[in-house]
């Protein structure tokens, strides 16, 4: 084990997280969380790990990024019916029983993970129930009621962290977190997502640079539909490490949505579970390189509930814990039996891999593909604001 491995890590998990349930056939089904923890347990990833329960976040903590009037609306919504405003009662964000309590618990989980790092009890912490990055100051959006990512970052800023980098690898633009810190030069928000011309929420263009006094702290890399592992990783490597090195964060927060997968029903990127594993390992390395090893990892989107999310996030848990799972590891029979009962007509993969090669050719300044165009546009918009040369691949 090398010197950068074996860092203290905390895993926040409580079955009560399953109460964030938008009901019916809503895509954000909490079974994905249950199946992830079951798979990680069956594979031994969580052996000897004390899972840390969360307490619901206090209203004062949620109000770091949300209006009190919005919290009142969330509390009242289950009794008020469907036409309650604030983005509540829509197809994306239906009203459900104990909505405030379940949403506050998700925020509490991310805060618990943040506290473990701030206190020095852990260098890394993960809460797969978190990552609800679309919620805005006064309304719900994109399956997200409260923005746990933004609350955790706001709290960490008050604990003495002066520079925090947030990297969002969900297929959808991390718009809520960007909005929360658009004018704050202490927070670098980086979002790699499907091009907004082809996917909701329609934001996340390179020209969204940050507000007055914070220019350059909002980074958007908009990737064309069909982008796969090698091209995604090439684009990431051509933009994100240089910006993180220039910003010099004291802590890395990541939203690790897995709806970038080629089988995800809600979007059009083409990553694999192997690509996700490579992304997590790269984020771990960057946390060590640029942030003293401090890494807060959160979940996010992911709607292929049986075949993708459990495997991808088991790799995430394993990466945070330095218990990397080999890609060719077979899926445990007990887990397969349980998952098969949930949908007998849905064939399951046999291993923790999709059989994809994740090697890529580093970007060298060429603009030969749509992905290269995206890289060029982001570099030209952002790099000069950080003293970097957008046309020099060494930067």
Automatic annotation (TrEMBL):
Signal peptide residue numbers: none
Compositionally skewed regions (Polar residues) per UniProt: 348-359
Keyword Metal-binding part of the UniProt annotation: no
Protein name in the entry: Acetoin utilization protein AcuC
Stored Gene3D superfamilies: Histone deacetylase domain
Matching InterPro entries: AcuC (IPR003085), HDACs (IPR000286), His_deacetylse_dom (IPR023801), His_deacetylse_dom_sf (IPR037138), Ureohydrolase_dom_sf (IPR023696)
This protein's pathway: Ketone degradation; acetoin degradation
The keyword Ribonucleoprotein appears for this protein: no
Key words, A-Z: Acetoin catabolism
Species, as recorded: Saccharothrix yanglingensis
Family assignment from sequence similarity: Belongs to the histone deacetylase family.
Start and end residues of each stretch annotated as Disordered: 344-368
Annotated Histone deacetylase domain residues: 26-319
